Amino acid sequence: MIDTHTHVHDPAFDLDREAVLARAMSAGISKIITVGTDLGDSRRALAIASLFGLAASLGIHPHEAKDAPADIASAFDEVLKNGEKRPVAIGETGLDYHYMHSPPADQRRALEQQLAYARERAFPIIYHQREAFDDFLPILRNGRASEVPGVVHCFTGDAEQARILTGEFGLRLGIGGVVTFKSAQPLRDAVRAVGLANLVLETDCPYLAPVPHRGARNEPAYVIETAKYLATVLEVSIGDVVAMTDANANALFSL
């Protein structure tokens, strides 16, 4: 299994990172992507990935967009020039109007620049979208997102949004612990609407642990719970879930 979206470089894992990664290996997790959320955090992600044999991304999260440099491309180039490990994707980037930690205009600017960077430098992209679909969609269209392989991580939208993102733009949907929550019926309907061929697995750890671990610190080993649950939702075997989501992740990120 591949966990396509973690934050195992986060300080939440500083005391037991090796044990967490050992549990992941024991649970059958073969590859892990640890995802950057600003320039400093991305450097840390790349360093931890290099140390532990993981993959990592380079990005500026919408929460951090207010502090993004004016020229994100130059800042990213500087990280790539000085870094020992090459990121497998740009992101996570996107829009989050739930918490609104950064003004919408700053979020949109950061997303537009990162989408352009990914397209011009031939990187896949990791998107974050929460309660901002009406602004997110035109940015994808104007930014020619259909030319950029990518994933909408922690997808929690409805079936119509899922069809647009996968059908119009060819994006994958990152499915994590939220799909196991009792309140997530619209997400389960969305998963059924687009099918396994459009999905990848993720934890978004240390956040959003799946049932039966809900409320605990999430970790990559728990991705198995999401895989099992998806198998039930889609009425397929867990082997089918793992095989297809792994193939999707390997193709998307060139792992």
Describe the structure.
This protein has 255 residues and is α/β, with parallel strands linked by helices. The chain has a single domain (2-253), classed as TIM Barrel (Alpha-Beta Barrel), CATH 3.20.20. It has nine helices and eight strands. The protein has helices at residues 17-26, 39-52, 72-82, 104-121, 133-142, 159-167, 185-194, 223-234, 238-253; strands at 2-6, 31-34, 55-58, 89-96, 125-130, 150-152, 172-175, 199-201. An eight-stranded parallel β-sheet has the order 1-2-3-4-5-6-7-8. Strand 4, helix 4 (104-121) and strand 5 form a beta-alpha-beta unit. Helix 6 packs parallel to helix 7 (185-194) and helix 8 (223-234) packs across helix 9 (238-253). The longest helix is centred in the middle third of the chain and has 18 residues, at 104-121. The chain is globular, with a radius of gyration of 17 Å. The chain starts with a strand and ends with a helix. The mean pLDDT is 98.
Keywords:
8-stranded parallel beta sheet; alpha/beta
A few lines on this structure:
With 255 residues, the protein is an alpha/beta fold. It contains 9 helices and 8 strands.
Uncertain spans, ≥5 residues at pLDDT below 50?
none
The ordered H/E elements are EHEHEHEHEHEHEHEHH
Average pLDDT works out at 98
Largest sheet: 8 strands, parallel
Tell me how many strands there are.
8
Tell me the CATH topology.
Answer: TIM Barrel
Distance between the termini: 12 Å
Q: What is the alpha-carbon Rg in Å?
A: 17 Å
Tell me the CATH architecture: Alpha-Beta Barrel
Secondary structure tally, helices = 9
Which superfamily, in CATH terms, is the homologous superfamily? Answer: Metal-dependent hydrolases
Biggest sheet, strands in spatial order? 1-2-3-4-5-6-7-8
Determine the fraction of residues in helical runs and give it as a percent range.
40-55%
Number of domains: 1
Structure class: alpha/beta
Bin the strand percentage.
Answer: 5-15%
Top-tier CATH class: Alpha Beta
